[in-house]
Design goal:
By secondary structure, this protein is α/β, with parallel strands linked by helices. The chain is built from twelve helices and 14 strands. The chain has two domains: 219 residues, Rossmann fold; 66 residues, Alpha-Beta Plaits. A hairpin with a 2-residue loop joins strand 12 and strand 13. Helix 3 packs across helix 4 and helix 3 packs parallel to helix 5. The protein binds adenosine-5'-triphosphate. GO terms for molecular function: ATP binding.
């Protein structure tokens, strides 16, 4: 095992009956990095995380997290990781300090150590003034801070965060990411699922999943550079009709309106995308076209709109 990898998964597959929720997933997360896990709803991100945390047994494949094999050594691993799920994993009828004390008990922290750790976490995550408030009465942002504090009670070396920012405002999300970078600097490796492209851009590395398969993996900049489509923005009138016309062509993988512009993804096999569009639309249309830099949303749309690889697992299950 390469000790510089916090997560090292190869060929993980999870089937529920005949349905493969995760197919041949390989994922390498270097120690200390924040790795983003993206993909459409239902593509298998949470299932993959549940396998990596040792909560779910894969149908096929193996993974090592911190050098510990899952699911074989799941109990050993659980003491060294933190897991925050998308539905806040808090006890709503317990106060802030009671939630933290309860987590400390689950991890069998000695009483003195628990006390000092809880004090430290209440300071770090600005929970002191809320110590006696019931978790169920807190705002989304406050609950999120408490959930992160709870997930960190055992000073985890790897943190798994499943859509941790789905219920919080932009400022709270920003603060949350600053806290993740503090943790990363202290050596914690983080795998975080998100549907927000601004969050994805902050990650050191990204894996994008589609229908159980990883369809792209790399740094945000690397993924944008490698994208298999050029991006053209078209300004003009009647963009809804234009969109319908363009998406009928195989070369156009996506067209989406942004204000008074249409953002069009055109297969890189077309060496001259603007020339292609002009020829396609005819010379008498007064349209302004400009080739622009791809962003991560383009990468996401391009990658999740592609056909899936043929799956030996799915074929075997037929
Ligand atoms: N225990 C289960 N039994 C049967 N099917 C399941 C089970 N758990 C997950 N699935 C299915 O596996 C697929 C992947 O689900 P998963 O929750 O991993 O997706 P996700 O990428 O995390 O989605 P989201 O972004 O919406 O949270 C879905 O089709 C889901 O219905």
């Amino acid at each position: 095992m390469n000790r510089e990898l916090a997560i090292d998964a190869t060929g993980l597959t999870k089937k529920f009956g005949d349905f493969a929720a995760v197919s041949e997933l390989s994922l390498k997360v270097p120690e200390g990095q924040i790795y983003g896990f993206l993909g459409p709803n239902g593509c298998g991100k949470s299932t993959a995380i549940r396998i990596l945390t040792g909560l779910l047994t894969p149908t096929k494949g193996s993974a090592k997290v911190l050098g510990i094999e899952v699911p074989k050594q799941a109990e050993l691993l659980r003491r060294q990781i933190g897991y925050m799920t998308q539905k806040f994993s808090l006890y709503e009828d317990l106060s802030v300090s009671e939630n933290l004390s309860f987590m400390a008990q689950i991890f069998n922290l000695p009483r003195d150590l628990a006390r000092s750790r809880i004090t430290e976490l209440m300071d770090t995550y600005r929970l002191n003034e809320l110590a006696n408030q019931l978790a169920g009465t807190m705002s989304g942002g406050q609950k999120q801070r408490l959930a992160l504090a709870c997930a960190c009670i055992n000073k985890p070396k790897v943190l798994f965060l499943d859509e941790p920012t789905s219920a919080v405002d932009p400022q709270s999300r920003r603060d949350f990411w600053e806290q993740l970078f503090d943790l990363s600097e202290q050596g914690t490796s983080i795998l975080v699922t998100t549907h927000y492209m601004d969050e994805a851009e902050r990650c050191h590395g990204l894996a994008i999943m589609n229908k159980g398969w990883i369809c792209a993996d790399g740094s945000p900049l690397g993924l944008m550079d490698k994208m298999q489509a050029n991006v053209i923005e078209i300004a003009g009138n009647d963009l809804r009709a234009l969109k319908d016309r363009l998406t009928a062509f195989d070369e156009v993988s996506s067209a989406a309106q942004l204000g008074n512009r249409l953002r069009v993804l055109i297969d890189k096999a077309q060496a001259d995308p603007i020339g292609f569009l002009q020829a396609t639309l005819g010379a008498n249309e007064p349209l302004q076209m400009e080739q622009v830099r791809p962003n991560l949303e383009d990468v996401f749309v391009d990658c999740t709109g592609k056909p899936l690889p043929s799956s030996p697992v799915q074929e075997a299950g037929k």
